[in-house]
Every structure is written in C-alpha cells, then in structure tokens.
Amino acid sequence: MTSTVAPTLWRDADFLRYWGSRAVTMVGSSVTAVALPVLIYQVTGSPALTSSLMATSTLSMAFFGLVGGVLGDRFDRRRIMIVADLVSAVAIASLVLAHLMGVLTIPHVYAAAFASASAAVLFDGSSAGALPTLVGRSRLPDANARIWGTQGVLDVAMPAAAGLALVIWSPATLLVVDVLSFLGSVLLVRAIRTALNAARDRTRRVTAGDLWGDLVEGLTFLRRHPTLWPLAMVAVFGAGSAAALLGLVVPWADRVLGVGTSGWRFGLLFGSWAAGAFLASFLMPRLSRRHGAIRLAQVLFPVMTMLLLALSRLDDYGPALAVYLGYATLHVLVISATVTYRMQVIPERLLSRVSTASRTISWGGGATLGVLVSGQVASRWGVSTALVVVALANGCAALLTWVPALPRAAPSARHVDAD
C-alpha cells in the first residue's frame, strides 16, 4: 500500500491511470445519461417510462451489488473491471448497430441499459476496494475529491455538448462516444502496475460455500456496525430522492420549464448536477475533516429538503436552475463525505463487500422505489406533485440522521489499515 502524501497524487502514475479510466468513462456516461432518456421520451412521450429508465441502473444494483462486492474481495479486481468495461461496450454498441440497421426497439434500449448498468455495478464493486488499496486510507479524501472534481468538470461540459448535438444527431448516434470510452478504460486499467488487491490465499479452490460465507460476513459487518448501518438507512431515502429527481429531469424540462428536450438550456440543466458535484469536490475534503461526514449529513439533509420543496413550486428556468444546482451541490457533498467515511472504516478484506452492500441497500432498494413511485406520480398528477414526493423522501433521510447512534458517534472516521 502506498504511503506517499496527498500532494503527490498527480505524480502517482498508477493513480493517474486509475483516474484516467474513470475520466474517460465519465465522458461516455455523461453523454448516455442525456441520450437514452431523451430517446425514450421522444419515442413514447411518457414520464413514467422515461423515469423508469433510471430503474435499469437501480435494479442492476439490487441484483448484482452484493455479488460484485463478493467477487471484488475474493478475485482479481483488475480483471473484473476490464471484463465489466468490455460487457458495457458491447451492450451500448448493440444499440448503435440496431439504430443503423433500423431495428432499434424500446425493449432493446431497456435491455442494453440494464446490461451496461449491471456490468458497471460489478466494475464498481471491485473499484470500491481498488482505490483505497491503490492510494492508502489517509489519501482517500483527496483522491475521491480529484475523481469527483473531474466528474464535475466533464459532466458539466458533456451534457451541454450533448444537448447541442441532439439538435443535429439522433440520441442513438451519440452512444458511440460511450462505446469508445469503455474501450479506453480497458486500456488504462490494464496499464495499472500496482496490485489492486492485498495478498490473498490462492492455494485452494474457491467453492460456492466460500462465496456465500463471504457474502454473509460482509452483510453481518454492515448490520452490526454502529454507524455504517444507520448511515445506510439514511442513504435509502437520500438515494431514493436523488434518483427520483434525476429520473424526472427530462419531463420536468419539457413540461414544467418549457425548454424542450434539446438545445443548450436543456444540456445546461443536465450539466448543472455535475456542476454541483464539481463544487462539492472542492468543499468535501476540508468540510469532512473539520466537521465530519455525520455532522454534515445532519445539517445538510434538512436544507436539501427545503430546496426540493422550493423546486416543486418553480416553473421559471433561471431560478429553478439555481435551486437545482444548490441541491446537487449539497447532495454530492454529503454522499461523497459519507462514502469516504465508509471506505476509511472498513477493513481491506471487506472493502468491496461492505461498500457494495451499502450501495445495494440504498441505490438498489431506495433508488429503485424512488424512481418507480415518482414516475407514476408524475404521470397521474404531474411533475410538480412528484417533486413534492421527492422532497418528502429527502425529509425522511433528514430525520434518520438523528437516530441515537449517529449523534453519539465520533464525527470523523478512524482509519483502518489492517484487519
């Protein structure tokens, strides 16, 4: 495990390769995040079907999150990440080919999106354990800030560019960018020289019983941990509200704000979430060290709830964009701080399992329910009413940050560098 200090991260060749692999996939994913929901909405005109596209991501976490964690802790994380990228590339490429042949269907879009998202879950299961192993626990806040900061920059520029590109090209054509990004990630991950797993016993064959035992061990650690389990419950409602809001962006832009589904204002709306992530990447290391992830969650979740309620009342583009940006900044700030906290307290041999178990509960469970409920509410009673439901879910997260275990906990994580 590396022991260099934070200022040298940009001189760490293997970190740069890891960062580069994340950056190129962020480029492609940013384009796809705009292109796919626009494709669904243009073909169907349905807020429920458009919002349900987000469920392909959340359901993939529900189905494969725990599996990804077990595989990432038991097997070679580098190989898993490479195979996952290749699967995603093939899934998205199938949409491009079907479009060119004139046989693209909505079920095909959902199937390919689910396959790509499922591969991404397996990638993230290994990636969650790979980064702490690569940079060390003490450098995690800075490493995560650099990665999320890069994501913020790219996700501001790419959705805006995609919005303009949609004026000229079809959503399916833009997916070529995502295919190329996955292939670029494969080359960068292969080039990482540092081992992405700590030493493991490879002398005996792994059985199904071993894998099941690994799964139970990870879930047991999470369930018994005095702070990670309450934070997972907070994340159920936090992720549910955020995913629901993201799933409503296309119909919200079209039906409430009146900006349509293409053009620079539409792209800027998508990019404002990433702009919030970029701002949060600068704030997170300092604020998390000063106040701790738990305290940040207790203070910021109520503020986010008020912003969401305000958003449900706005139909003017400028003020709505500003409020949306504020919510995105605070949401990513809290999430990045709590994810870093989680990485710092989990022993290395459990990193992938416990991290993906937490995400499975929050993203696979809470986010899936959030996008499905909000989509149905938007179709029956309107997008503004659905945004009220999103705010109420976030309010539940705010209340859960005050369960007794969290106020009593130490505000900052104690680093765990050995089992």
TrEMBL record:
Got a GO cellular component term for this one? Answer: plasma membrane
Localization per Swiss-Prot or TrEMBL: Cell membrane
Q: How does it sit in the membrane?
A: Multi-pass membrane protein
Task: Using the record, list the residue span of the signal peptide; answer none if the entry has no such feature.
Answer: none
What sections of the protein cross the membrane? 23-43, 49-71, 83-104, 175-196, 228-252, 264-284, 296-314, 320-341, 361-379, 385-405
Keyword field: Cell membrane, Membrane, Transmembrane, Transmembrane helix, Transport
Name of the protein: MFS transporter
Q: Which Pfam families match?
A: MFS_3
Organism lineage: Bacteria, Bacillati, Actinomycetota, Actinomycetes, Micrococcales
